[in-house]
């Protein structure tokens, strides 16, 4: 069994996403952007962010999975925070449109070790966009294994496993409106 505790409320998320959208709209004033969401975790963030932007935006999506997939964190562990990715990333869905010469915003739910984003950034850079920026709702800087940073960050969080607002635990909890910390319950 798992226990959930609200870490960032829907109200806090709403306010921060609006601020991020204002900043992005200012930075790209008079231009258009392609929002490239990373499936599936970033979809809810992308849909809220997109609706708060005042500039022209189109969507695209990338799908990735890790080899030796870390899948769900083990149920029997008290501390889920140290659960590791293999770091070897596989592309399951490429973008549908040309990114050449475009303003591309890679939209991710959470920047953790940085292995996934480093891979995706390289992949998109090969499409030769005019600008490539990373937008991450959450950042766990203490977990970083690759020296990658997001250009726009919603919240910095400690090394805790979170779910909700698109993020899952064994595919569950993506539909929670708040961001919650999940921990294995004491039996
Ligand atoms: P990275 O390659 O370690 O940076 O992995 C980032 C990806 O791992 C994110 O896009 C999430 O899909 C997943 N992830 C990392 N931390 C969490 C978490 O606390 N909750 C849910 N998913 C997470
Ligand atoms: Mg993800």
Task: Give every kind of bound small molecule, once each.
Answer: inosinic acid, magnesium ion
Rg for CA atoms: 16 Å
What do we call the CATH topology? Rossmann fold
CATH A-level architecture: 3-Layer(aba) Sandwich
Q: Beta-sheet strand percentage? A: 25-35%
Q: What shape does the CA trace take?
A: globular
Q: What is the number of helical segments per DSSP (H or I, 4+ residues)?
A: 3
**What is the CA-CA span between the terminal residues?**
8 Å
Neighbour order of strands in the largest sheet: 4-3-2-5-6-7
**CATH class category:** Alpha Beta
Mean pLDDT: 89
The overall number of domains is 1
Description:
With 187 residues, the protein is α/β, with parallel strands linked by helices. The chain has a single domain (10-68, 79-160), classed as Rossmann fold, CATH 3.40.50.2020. It is 21% helix and 33% strand. The protein is built from three helices and nine strands. The protein has helices spanning 10-27, 43-52, 115-125; strands spanning 2-8, 32-39, 56-66, 89-93, 103-111, 131-139, 152-156, 162-163, 179-184. The strands form two sheets. Strands 4-3-2-5-6-7 form a six-stranded mixed beta sheet, sandwiched between helices. Strands 1-9-8 form a three-stranded antiparallel beta sheet. It is globular, with a radius of gyration of 16 Å. It starts with a strand and ends with a strand. The mean pLDDT is 89. The site of inosinic acid has 17 residues, from β5, α3 and β8. Inosinic acid (IMP) is lined by residues 38, 41, 85, 108-117, 161-163, 167.
């Amino acid at each position: 069994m798992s226990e959930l505790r609200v870490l960032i409320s829907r109200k806090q998320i709403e306010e921060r996403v609006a601020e991020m959208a204002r900043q992005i709209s200012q930075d790209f004033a008079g231009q258009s952007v392609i929002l490239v969401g990373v499936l599936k975790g970033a979809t809810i963030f992308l849909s809220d962010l997109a609706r708060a932007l005042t500039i022209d935006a189109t969507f695209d999506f990338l799908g990735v999975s890790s080899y030796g997939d870390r899948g769900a964190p083990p149920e029997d562990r008290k501390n889920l925070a140290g659960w590791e990715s293999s770091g070897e990333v596989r592309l399951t869905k490429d973008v549908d449109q040309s990114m050449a010469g475009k303003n591309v915003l890679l939209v991710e739910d959470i920047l953790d070790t940085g292995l996934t984003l480093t891979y995706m950034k390289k992949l998109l850079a090969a499409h030769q966009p005019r600008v490539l920026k990373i937008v991450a709702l959450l950042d766990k800087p203490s977990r970083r294994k690759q020296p990658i940073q997001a250009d726009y960050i919603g919240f910095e969080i400690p090394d805790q496993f979170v779910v909700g607002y698109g993020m899952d635990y064994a595919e569950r909890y993506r539909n929670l409106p708040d961001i919650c910390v999940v921990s294995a319950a004491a039996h």
